[in-house]
From TrEMBL:
One of its GO terms (cellular component) is membrane. Residues 247-438 form the Protein O-mannosyl-transferase C-terminal four TM domain. InterPro entries: ArnT-like_N, PMT-like, PMT_4TMC. This is Uncharacterized protein. It comes from marine metagenome. The lineage of its organism: unclassified sequences, metagenomes, ecological metagenomes. Keywords: Glycosyltransferase, Membrane, Transferase, Transmembrane, Transmembrane helix. Pfam families: PMT, PMT_4TMC.
Length: 439
């Protein structure tokens, strides 16, 4: 694939990603699911009110900025933040920032894949999966913090890879550290990105002839300081706006909250961490039923579910398992090409495990969206094997690629109404619920 054709593909993918995230963004007129929290916190910042929150403050800042920036548009009339409630604000005022950052995620993933392999086809296939995957679409259209976490974390990994690939020097390490701190400042689960970064850095120690810099003690110290300083700095505005508690007291509050919050299966959409790769329990964000006034009992449903593309999840789960087996049994490969492939597989496998296995030790109620970071690493595994099938000289392998691509595309279109909130007859809704656990 030429550079010119890859640029055209990337432009098309970006336009599709933007369309899926911005079209009809305001159709649900009011807060959905946890939108009653994050945008509300942003509004409280603008109103100068004290409040308690269960996560670091960066997402709250971003929603305060989103609401403020939207209010500057000439057709928007918000007389006073002091008297207005969240229900009185157009939802697009706090959703647009998720849609924007979520749209850009496919570009970030493209950059990561290309840095790792210089394989444009692999990078394009991965960016397509990220652009059309259902759970990523939904959380880019709803004002929840998950999209911030993904965008900042993977951006941090991108610049870290640029540093290790000798593209841009220390500037990349600084930018990577800032974005890593931003990910952790959205949710502490962003530490999974840092763990993935550590694993990748350790991989470079024994890897030969790949062009990567080696891990040094000074690199680790500088990187850690950048992350720590940025993380502390992000809390400073909050200590001014929410002055009742200092930096350490806020961390004690957050930790205490997560230790005592909902446990087990007390929430109807709780799910066990080991069920996430199979998409066992999607999450209902919004549901509205409109009866048909013709004497029948039928209704039209408008629903928004955090509903991943089942086949992308299932295929990618098989792919990451296969890749981990390959990585485990083929550690002693000496050619330059295979050493680079070994680095790719190590990055994917360790990135997946670093963002998946820690959830096994969490006793609180967990949800499918906690798997999103790990799922993107599994998408890389799926895209890698799809690119190998596509580039194969054997017709049967290319046929498998075509069949897989068709299944993914058809399933994307089939379940899109549940992700975009399209109105549908009740029987169409239930037709898409293949298992009782999906309802």
């Amino acid at each position: 694939m030429t550079l010119a054709s890859s640029k055209r593909w990337v432009a098309v993918i970006l336009l599709i990603s933007i369309g899926l995230r911005f079209i009809g963004l305001n159709q649900i007129n009011g807060p959905v699911f946890d939108e009653v929290f994050y945008p509300q916190y942003g509004l409280l910042y603008l109103q100068g009110e004290d409040f308690f929150y269960a996560h670091p403050p960066l997402a709250n800042y971003l929603y305060a900025f989103a609401i403020w920036a939207y209010s500057l548009l000439p057709w928007v009339n918000i007389e006073s933040y002091q008297t207005i409630g969240l229900s009185s604000i157009e939802p697009i005022s706090y959703r647009w920032i998720n849609a924007l950052l979520g749209s850009l995620l496919c570009l970030i993933i493209y950059g990561i894949c290309f840095l790792l392999t210089k394989n444009r086809m692999f990078a394009i296939l991965t960016s397509i999966l990220v652009a059309i995957e259902g759970s990523l679409i939904v959380d880019s259209r709803i004002a929840l913090a998950n999209t911030f976490l993904l965008t900042f974390g993977f951006t941090g990994l991108y610049f870290l890879l640029r540093f290790y690939a000798n593209q841009g020097g220390w500037y990349n390490l600084i930018v990577s550290g800032v974005f890593m701190a931003m990910a952790v400042s959205v949710k502490w689960s962003g530490l999974g990105f840092l763990l993935a970064a550590v694993c990748f850095a350790l991989l470079t120690i024994n890897n030969k002839e790949t062009g990567y810099k080696k891990l040094t003690l000074s690199n680790c110290i500088y990187y850690g300081l950048i992350i720590l300083i940025t993380y502390v700095a992000i809390f400073l505005p909050d200590t001014y706006l929410n002055p009742n508690f200092g930096f350490f007291e806020k961390h004690q509050q957050i930790l205490s909250y997560h230790q005592t919050m909902v446990t087990g299966n007390e929430h109807p959409y709780c799910s066990k961490w080991y069920t996430w790769p199979t998409m066992f329990r999607p999450i209902g964000y919004f549901f509205e039923s409109t009866p048909i006034n013709n004497g029948n009992t039928a209704s039209y449903f408008k629903a928004i579910h955090l509903f991943p593309n089942p086949f992308i999840y299932w295929f990618s789960s098989l792919s990451i398992i296969f890749m981990m087996i390959q990585f485990a049994i083929n550690p002693l490969i000496n050619s330059i090409q295979n050493q680079k492939e070994l680095m790719l597989k190590g990055f994917i496998c360790f990135g997946y495990l670093a963002n998946f296995l820690p959830w096994a030790f969490v006793e609180r109620c967990l949800f499918l969206y906690h798997y999103q970071t790990a799922s993107i690493f599994s998408f890389l595994a799926l895209a890698w094997y799809l690119s190998q099938l596509l580039n194969s000289k054997k017709l049967q392998y290319r046929s498998i690629f075509v069949l897989t691509a068709i299944v993914i595309l058809v399933s994307f279109l089939y379940w899109l109404p549940l992700q975009m909130g399209f109105l549908m007859p009740d029987y169409e809704f239930y037709r898409r619920m293949w298992f009782n656990s999906w309802i």
